[in-house]
Amino acid sequence: MEKNYRIVIDTLGSDKGPEAILEGAKTVLENNPNINLVLVGDSELISSFGFPKERIEIIHATNTVTNYDNPMEAFYRKEKPSVFLALEKCATDEDAIGVISSGNTGAVLVGAIKYLLNENRDRPCLAAMIPTKINGHYTCLVDTGAITDCTSSQLVGFAHLGSKFVKQLYKIENPRVGLLSNGSEPTKGNKLVKETHLLLKDDKEINFIGNIEAVNTLDGLCDVLVCDGFAGNQILKNTQGVAMTLIKEVMKFGVINKQEDITKQIAGHIMKNYDFESNGAAIMLGTKKYVLKCRGSSGPNATVSACNILINVINNKCYY
Amino acid sequence: MEKNYRIVIDTLGSDKGPEAILEGAKTVLENNPNINLVLVGDSELISSFGFPKERIEIIHATNTVTNYDNPMEAFYRKEKPSVFLALEKCATDEDAIGVISSGNTGAVLVGAIKYLLNENRDRPCLAAMIPTKINGHYTCLVDTGAITDCTSSQLVGFAHLGSKFVKQLYKIENPRVGLLSNGSEPTKGNKLVKETHLLLKDDKEINFIGNIEAVNTLDGLCDVLVCDGFAGNQILKNTQGVAMTLIKEVMKFGVINKQEDITKQIAGHIMKNYDFESNGAAIMLGTKKYVLKCRGSSGPNATVSACNILINVINNKCYY
User: Is residue B282 part of a domain?
Assistant: First the structure.
């Protein structure tokens, strides 16, 4: 990165409180001398963290969108919630490369559509990069929760957005696109999947390789895995849940068999890849600038990790 | 079990060939002196296995339903496929307690509805017992693939069938029913899930505890987890896929660090619970007799395991 970029961070979205996000922000500034931050949240609290003044800008906000709010109604509230202020700032500040929020997914989406939607674009989706068993290979899972009730043409839109993204990020010439289904045969799937299968098969701009079953999500069989936001959310969260459960099993085994040294190492090795809660962030595709959505339960690492994804994306010249 | 029961086995469904199923059948006979078998398949091949004549009955069949066939059309074929012969036999033989098949799921369902549907019952579903982190506790996941496009009233039907089943099987007085969603709040979910949430909340016969996220599927938070067959299939297969991938990671770690003894033990421990492919079977609920559906890629263990589930179900006086 040649010049100083700015990243906008909504500090109010996490269930762990703004302190967790601000801790993460501190690490981001320490690790990246050419990144400055715009911090949206309680200005008094933010000031108390002693950030270097020349590297941050504060936008005061105390209002949030809870998981019980209607995101669209929240958008038109008198006192704007932090997530919308953050997205608005990103849209209007030309040095800002992206936004990070742990807030309500619906609100992040509504704000992104209001402020950052590209004209002539499909509705944005949330992609997650899933680590596969092939060293260094990730599968881009789209959508992971932006749209829970999709049409087949929206799924085709996700396939295009995902293909373009991994083409730029990983320099893959002709990304393999798979469709999540309950069987590998074209006749398998629910109504939506069967319809989408036919559309993807006929789409000349997509390298469609057919249906992929959930048993193979970590096998690296495709570069982009397409599904509706409800299914993608299940895959993402189930993968994390199973990994965390098995880590605990491994640790328990270590205690019982007095082999804690080795089982701790194994657990650390697995955590590094599959603890999406503290490491990962979903990235919105189809917007004018990148929007990163961390889990509601995000700790400091999530902010650090989301910034790293953003910097990587910009360094690889992934255009929105 | 006091008297001799019969189990009907469709020997033609597995991708691994009838030999794999017949190997399993042999073990079942050896392990269970009071279980006799009806084997549906190639009579010449079956005879070549040297089963004790007084303990088996053979129904000759060579026709199958492939994953490319339309199950309903296949049902009306002149020469009946083995799966339908097996289900018909189970329906008409009063000593038969259930059927096991690894064949096409749609065909198993069509056959079950034609021959074994209880009057005044909801459409049957396929339940899978998911091991949880609580020792000895399973969560009954319904549906895992019988109906991929469901209505909310079908999901409520699954909740009833699942509740009744675990009540009998595990003697749980008031089974906790959860609804799979992409957030724990009642407002989260796709259209189907939101509708179903409202229906379950008002259902006085169901102990509905609310939405469950996929990150918690192995946490034992509920006794019955309700979802449509597409979502359930994703959870079941993704759980297996992630577990198998992590086992391979653990093994690789053992080789690199010369700790293969301990990592092999850990892998075996995990395999025992999560290798659904060779161990598990989905059980159909809502039929006059129990129908067990093994995975298409089932080996001999799947047949043994399915018989054990069936025997356990009958011993626990789970009425259809």
Answer: no
